[in-house]
Specification:
Elements (H helix, E strand, L loop, with lengths): L1 E5 L4 H12 L4 E5 L4 H6 L7 E4 L5 E3 L4 H10 L3
Parallel strand pairs: 1-2
Antiparallel strand pairs: 1-3, 3-4
Amino acid sequence: MIIKFYTKSCGPCKMVTAVLDDLEVEYEGVDIEEDMQTAIDNRVSSVPTLVNTETGSRIIGFKSKEKIQEWLNDNPS
């Protein structure tokens, strides 16, 4: 499973959401302002952060559509 950690006011988070939606990726979103404990449990220190819960791999910060697709291909969930 892919988890997207974000905040509602984060511009780069909105850009990552658009990329994930464009790639038709299924993910769970966690607003760290509403669920800080899940962010702490997953060692998230900045947003946006994408975490693959099966492989432990993560992307921190906004990345291009191509980079996110490459990460997804290398870390299937």
